[in-house]
Amino acid sequence: MPDQDLTEDIRLFSSKDRVMAIDSSVKKKILDLLQERDRSFDELVSSCGKAKSTISVHIHDLIHAGFISSQTDPHDNRKKILTLTSDPIGRLTNRDRDISLKEEPCDEELPFHPRDIASFFKFGIRTFRTEAMALGINIDPVLERTGWKIGSILTPLIYSPDISQMVQNIHNFWQEHGLGSVELSGSDPIAIIVYGCFECEDLPVTGHGACSFDIGVLSAIFTKYLNAPVQITEVECYSAGHTHCRFLIKKL
């Protein structure tokens, strides 16, 4: 799913000793690259398109702040490998503020069914997300981490070595608790479609995906299934104007 330019965002990162807001475009680029994987100094220079001296200054600042670390390349002691040692918290952004503020109020007496805990849960999530959007706060990394922890707890309940059965188990759990419905739509790569997504179905249409919590849950489940770290990409989403959410799952 194409993403909008986020260069004006302020990124929030947490290290062992501090929380820091990063507004330097070069530092944000370095941190984004290191979130994907460890990289050499020369790789960072090439990807950032800046002079070595400029990248060196920013790396020094990030190492001093405890946000990245530097080690000698075990295959070439003349080179340094940079590693991310901090965690992304979220962003301060104007990206979706106008969209959330234009949202029409609900005409119903109550925006949820009093005897349906799932509808109340969905209402609570929707209210939290839209209020955060209106304030210019994006906490997708926190939602994904939360999803991972919950997915790790959920995995033993739904795991099966047969992927069709496992996805059916996920579907049954989702249906039982009013979280939507889940189906397997492909195997190479693994593709999952969610209808009635509890996380985003009622959010304003923003033009981009909004299922960070789901991504965390699915990451934990499929890391166990594939016995390897996975990359999950949301390619379709209610919040992007689709009639479902669709996730592609690949082994890293």
Automatic annotation (TrEMBL):
Cleavable signal peptide: none
A GO MF term: DNA-binding transcription factor activity
Domain 4-vinyl reductase 4VR, chain residue ranges per copy: 189-251
SUPFAM superfamilies on file: Ligand-binding domain in the NO signalling and Golgi transport, Winged helix' DNA-binding domain
Protein's UniProt name: ArsR family transcriptional regulator
Pfam families reported in the protein's UniProt record: HTH_5, V4R
Top-level taxon in the UniProt lineage: Archaea
InterPro entries: ArsR-like_HTH (IPR011991), HTH_ArsR_DNA-bd_dom (IPR001845), NO_sig/Golgi_transp_ligand-bd (IPR024096), V4R (IPR004096), WH-like_DNA-bd_sf (IPR036388), WH_DNA-bd_sf (IPR036390)
